[in-house]
Design brief:
The structure is a homodimer of 311-residue chains. Chain A has 311 residues and is of the alpha/beta class. In chain A, 37% of the residues lie in helices and 23% in strands. Chain A has 12 helices and 13 strands. The first copy, chain A, has a 9-stranded mixed sheet with strand order 5-4-1-8-9-10-11-12-13, sandwiched between helices. The first copy, chain A, has a 4-stranded mixed sheet with strand order 3-2-6-7. The longest helix of chain A has 18 residues.
């Protein structure tokens, strides 16, 4: 069993109130892969340029990530993003985006990537997501992420692509924008009518919620003293979430599995934001992940006790 | 044992995507009292004008709320607020505020109000909150709410007032603004240095978190198909939270009590937003509250299961 992810592989330049990095490894596929690799073999599909070197490959390989489908475009440069966060890290401004090799990206999947059990379509153009989806005929669970750009300029294609996956992961504001519904409960119902059985609303610093036909589960984000860099947190969440599902190949992806998948995604995302880029997750240990999931369970549960209320 | 609340008593004019009301009963003390009344006797302290009639008193009295300290100012008009909400109810604009009798409000507490076991200082001028606090010498648990206006124009007085209470309840954005700290973990630590042992960060549609020296507890909001009118939800939450504490007079207000208090506050607030103003909570039954707390427990809990992670 294995996991395939298609998405961006990037160099990011980030400034936050806690410091800055001029050029660090990033991209949705990278953040996803480093989290999902705790659970299963991960195949990364995405393009890089000449500037993507051994040091970058090594970060992925050290975690056992399969980099065979990272496509090196000779003469090209790797996707580059520069952004800046506000004082409480809840606002972010894109200063610069260079698509570079990403501009003409056509996903090419090896046999190993095509045979994956679990597939994550990171935030790329929805037509490309659909092509990758079509190639992975053996995937038993497929999830998709997207963003406001595609809702703005390619909504019909995005909805068609959503129709072919099991799970939509989206920021809650984008979920409302996409469905034109004011609450995530109504938005999720609309999405389920398009096809997916599972909808995950990512809520940034507030956590995430998963909605299925059977029920709802809400989980706050892990509380942190300091958030250094939120870049990639959503993809890291997705990596933990999908990785957990990949690690449970027997039986259906029921609400119990989804809830625990949310917990692992949330735990991994909380490490991701503690330092810049992939710095923290790259040296994370299994014990640290397990401890944080336990802690998350403790800080989100309460025990009911009957009480007589006045009429 | 009983609960005293000081705060606004108002007529609200509200427009949301789901309809409008030209003049409905509202105000922080009213929303608080109707929720807290499920747990204990509530004394409401606040001013009203000639336009506040039997129908309005009756809404409170039907719940057993003590209205003896509602001060009728002859010739005056009741506080009036007009606001409008955006399509997903996450933005709101104040169109009109008439302070009316609230402009010269000097809280006068009867013996019954002064003897309360639990005191809630709703969002009014911090000097007035401090005066009320000083009068309630027997209160074993005192909480305070405030808003950005007082942080902007009376921060020093607000911090002094906060120093005299056990618990600060504030929107998370205001908590950051007040403390100038970027995360609620750091903000809560700063607040605890000023005096309160307990900090509650209200997060609107995302739920709430409580932070003490002993720990953290986060609880998502109850998911609703439709949110009709968020007005008063925060005060209704406070009413459920403080009411639950009032109903447990023996022993200290420990983290277990606080967690369950959060659940009752969250449940009550979720009913509050289902209809305009106090319409839903005014006819709410104890069984409905209990059922929603149970449901909240179900939709926020997950069961840990050990899993072997890859190194």
């Amino acid at each position: 069993m294995s996991v395939t992810v298609v998405g961006s592989i990037a160099f990011d330049a980030v400034r936050t109130p806690f410091g800055s990095r001029d050029r660090m490894l990033g991209g949705s596929a990278v953040h996803f892969a480093l989290a999902a690799a705790f659970f299963d073999t991960v195949h990364v599909v995405g393009p890089v340029g000449d500037d993507f070197g051994d040091a970058e490959y090594e970060v992925l390989r050290a975690r056992g990530v399969d980099t065979a489908d990272i496509e090196h475009v000779p003469g090209g440069r790797t996707f580059f993003w520069r952004g800046e966060y506000g004082w409480d890290l809840n606002t972010r401004e894109t200063i610069e985006t260079e698509l570079n090799v990403f501009a003409h990206f056509q996903p090419k999947l090896s046999e190993a990537s095509r045979c994956a059990d679990v597939l994550f379509l990171g935030n790329i153009q929805p037509d490309l997501q659909r092509e990758v989806r079509a190639q992975c005929t053996q995937a038993r669970f497929v999830a998709l992420d997207s963003m406001n750009l595609w809702i703005d300029i390619a909504r019909d294609s995005l909805i068609e692509t959503i129709g072919g996956v099991d799970c939509l992961l989206l920021n809650d504001a984008e979920l409302r924008q996409l469905t034109r519904e004011p609450t995530i409960v109504r938005a999720a119902r609309q999405v389920r009518e398009w096809g997916p059985r599972v909808v995950v609303a990512k809520q940034g610093e507030y956590g995430a919620a998963v909605l299925t036909g059977e029920g709802f589960f809400g989980l706050p984000a892990f509380p942190l003293e300091t958030v250094v860099d939120p870049t990639g947190a959503g993809d890291c969440f997705a990596g933990g979430f999908m990785g957990y599902i990949a690690a449970h190949p027997d039986g259906e992806v029921d609400d119990d599995i989804l809830r625990r998948a949310m917990a692992y995604g949330t735990a991994l995302a909380s490490f991701n934001v503690e330092e810049f880029g992939v710095e923290r997750v790259a040296r994370l240990t299994p014990d640290e992940v397990a401890d944080r999931v336990s802690e998350l369970q403790r800080i989100t549960s309460f025990i009911e006790k009957p009480i007589a209320l006045r009429d």
